[in-house]
Amino acid sequence: MIVVILGCLYIFVVTLGTGFFVELVLSRLFANGSDNRNATLFEPEGVMPRILSGIIFISVFVEFYSIIGKIGIIPHLIVLLLSGAGFYLLRDNVKSLIKAHKNTVISWEGFFWLIFVLLIAFYASRGEFHTDTKIYHAATIRMYEEYGLIKGMGNLQLHYAYNSSYLAFASLFSMRWLFGDSPLHVTTAFLEICGCIYSFYGLKRFKEHKHHASDTMRVAILFYVLIIIVLSMSPATDFATMLIALFIISMWCDAINCEDEGKRTIKEALLSVAAVYTLTMKFSSCFMVLLVIAPLLRLIKKRDISSILKYLLLGIVVAVPFLLRNYLISGWLLYPFAGIDIFNVEWKVPLEYLQHDQAQITVYGRCLFDVEKLNLPLREWFPVWLEARQRYEMMLMLGTALGTVFLLYYVLCYVIRKKEYALDYIAVFIASVSSLALWFLAAPFIRYALAFILAVMMIPLGCYLSDRGRGFIAIVTGFAAFGIFACLTPYFDNYIKDAGSFVKQNYDEPYYVSQRKYEDSKTGQVEINGNTIYYCDEGENNSYYYCPNTCYYTMLERTELIGDSLKDGFKAK
Fold first, then answer.
1. Dihedral sign, CA of 215, 217, 218, 219?
2. What are the 10-residue block averages of pLDDT along the chain, 573 residues in total?
3. Same domain, yes or no, for 319 and 356?
4. What's the pLDDT score for residue 39?
5. Res 41: pLDDT
6. Under DSSP, is residue 114 helix (H, G, I), strand (E, B) or coil?
7. 43-98 confidence digits (pLDDT tens)
8. Residue 32: what pLDDT?
9. 79 part of a folded domain
10. In a domain? residue 338
11. Pseudo-torsion of CA 106, 109, 112, 116, nearest 10°?
C-alpha cells in the first residue's frame, strides 16, 4: 500500500508540473488568439485540467520517443526536467494553486480524501489483474521498456498492434530501470484517486453551480471507480479510456457554468483536443472528437481562423505519434480497421489476420463466439446478446435507453428556448450517443462503453436538478429521473458486494508495504536467427518477465524476422 501511495503521489507531482509546462506553452501559442486571450482552461484553482494536460503531454512524448529508443531513465529524466521547468516558470500560478487548496487539504475535507486514497491503495496493492493485462497490457509495457517498439511486432502477437497511448504513459511510470522485476503498476489507481478527489471537491460545492450536469457526471466518476476498484492495479486500457472520457465530459459540463461565452469556447476547444487523446487510447472512443462541434461553430461565427488552425495543430500533434506507431507496428494506419489500406510494407499484418482479429472482437462482444456468425443480422444476434445479460446489466441497458430519450428531451427544450448553452448539450449528446452506437454495432462488451452509458443517464439527471419547471412536465421528468436511478441501483449494488467481499478475502494479504507483482507463467523459448523469442506455454498469460514474448505459439509459427536482428522487425511468413 505504501508503495502504491508513494507511486501515485510521485505521478501526481510529475503530471502536475508537466501540466504547468503545457499551460505555459498554450499561453504563448494563444497570445494573439481570440478576444478572450487571457482566458484558459486552467483556472487558478484548477488541478484536474493541469493533471489531464500533463497526462496527455507525457503520453505523446513517450509515443514519439519510443520510435527512436526504449523508455528507460533518459526519457524519464527529460519529463522530470520539463515538469520542474513548469513549476519554476509558472511559480506564481503554483503559489495561487497552493493558496487556493491549502486550507482544504488540511481540513476534515482533506481527511475524507485521505480515506479514499487509502481505500484505493488497498485494492491497488493486492487486487486482481484484468484478463487483457495478462494477455498483452503488461507485455506491451515491457516492450516499451526494452525496445520502444519493434517494427511489425503486431505479427508476433496481434494484440501488440492495438497500440494504446495509455500504455505509453504507464511505461514511463513503470520504472523497471529503478525497481527491476518489481515495476510499478499504479497508473490506474492514480487516475481513480484523481477522479475521486475531483468529484468530491466539486460535489461539495454543488450549491455554487447553476447547472448540475457536471455534478452528476462527478457521481458517474465515483460509480465507475467502484465498478473497477477490485482491478485497480491493472494498467487496463479500457479503464483508463473510460476514466479520461468521464473527466472530459464532466469538465465539458462544468464549462457550461461559465457565463462568458468566449471563455467557455476556449475551455471546450481544449477539451476537444483532449478528446483526440481518448481516440489514441482506444480507437472505439473516436466519436468523442465530435465534441468539437460546439467550439468550432462558435469560432467560425467569430471568423477566428487563427485559433481554429492552432487547435487543429494541437489535435494533429496528439494524433501523429499514435498513427506513426500504428504504421510501424502493424503496417496499418488504424488497426484493426481495414477501411484505410494505404501502405504496402514488408512488416504489414496480412489482411486476413486483421479481418479475423476484427471478427473475433465483434462476435465475442455479441456473445456468438464463432467468426462464421459475423454477418448474422441484428434480429438474430441481438436476442442472443440480450439473453446473455445478467439482470443488473439488463436494468443498466433499460436505463441507457431511458436516459438517451431523457437527454434528447432536454436538448430539444434548450434549442426551442434558444438557451445560450444549447449547442454545448447538442455536442455532448451527439458525441455520447454516436459512441454508444459504434460500441453496440462493433463490439458490445458493456465495459467498452461504460463512460458513455453513464453519461447519457447522468447528464439528464443533472439537467433535471438544474430545471426549475413546475406542473405536469415536472412530474413526468421526475418519474424519468426516478426510473434512471432505479435502473442504476442493481448494477452498482452488484459491485458494492464484490468490493466488500474482496476486502474480507484479502485483508490479511502481505501487501501493506509493497505491491503485488505481475503474474508470471510457464514460458517456452525458441531461437530465430540467433535471437531468443519467448512464448506462453500454458493458458493465455503472456509473462511480463520475458521479452519479446507472445501469448500464442501459433502466431510465432507463422512469423519470421525481417533480418538477423530483432531491431529489423517481424513479418508474416
1. positive
2. 97 97 90 44 80 97 97 98 96 91 91 94 95 96 96 96 97 96 97 96 91 95 96 96 97 91 91 97 94 96 94 97 98 94 95 95 93 94 94 94 95 93 96 96 92 96 84 83 92 91 92 95 91 90 93 92 93 94
3. no
4. 37
5. 52
6. helix
7. 767 899 999 999 999 999 999 999 999 999 999 999 999 999 999 999 999 999 99
8. 54
9. yes
10. no
11. -90
Give residue 359's domain range.
351-383
Give the max Cα distance, the chain: 79
Same domain, 298 and 370: no
Q: Which distant-in-sequence residues (6+ apart) come within 8 Å of 383 by Cβ? A: none
Question: Got the DSSP string for 398-438?
Answer: HHHHHHHHHHHHHHHHHHHTT-TTHHHHHHHHHHHHHHHHH
245 and 372 in a single domain? The answer is: no
| 86/18 Cα distance (integer angstroms) | 6
Residue that finishes a domain, picked among 269, 301, 330: 330
The answer to whether residue 178 is domain-embedded is yes
Distance CA 227, CA 392 (A): 13
49 and 198 within one domain: yes
Q: What's residue 259's pLDDT?
A: 85
Q: How far is CA 227 from CA 138, 218, 220, 242, 445, in A?
A: 21, 14, 10, 11, 15
Q: Are residues 199 and 124 in the same domain?
A: yes
Q: For residue 171, give the DSSP letter.
A: H
Residue 382, Cβ neighbours under 10 Å: how many?
A: 14
Q: Does residue 215 sit in the same domain as residue 257? A: yes
Do 323 and 357 share a domain, yes or no? no
Cα 280 to Cα 520: distance, rounded to the nearest angstrom: 29
**Residue 507 domain-assigned (yes or no):** no
